Amino acid sequence: MAEGFYLVLMRLVNMITLTESAAKKIKILLKEKKESGVRAGVQGGGCSGFTYKLKFDDQNESDRVIETRGVNIYVDPKSFLYLMGTLIDFVDELNQSGFKFINPNAKRTCGCGESFSV
After folding, report:
1. When comparing pLDDT for 9 and 92, which is higher?
2. Where are the domains of the chain?
């Protein structure tokens, strides 16, 4: 129950949130990198119109910086418009492993979950 309340609160305040499993995985991976956080973004492409981007990076001057669960997320102003309210999760299952974007703005997503339309 407390985890659910935390996620709702963080999504209202920060607009982009990491689950505990996503934050844990990013922190582990960041230890091996020189970058100070991750960049979440959107670019044109994919079967539904837009694709998600997630990469290790440092802050740019125009970025919105969101700190969630001890991880800095850098988002450019254009991508932020598409990612507001998004929850980023990390799944590690038998048939898939990776980061998953749960975006309330997406009107349609492709089967793989890597592209969306608004």
Report:
1. 92
2. 2-117
Tokens coding 6:
């935390």
When pLDDT is averaged across residues 98-104 and rounded to a whole number, the result is: 86
What CATH superfamily is the domain 2-117? HesB-like domain (2.60.300.12)
* Structure confidence by residue, pLDDT tens digits, 58-93: 999 999 999 999 999 999 999 998 898 999 999 988
User: Over the Cα atoms of the chain, what is R_g?
Assistant: 14
Q: Where are the beta strands (DSSP E) in the chain?
A: 17-18, 37-44, 50-57, 64-68, 71-75, 87-92, 97-102, 108-109, 115-117
Nearest residue to 76 via CA among 89, 66, 90? 66
Amino acid at 41: G
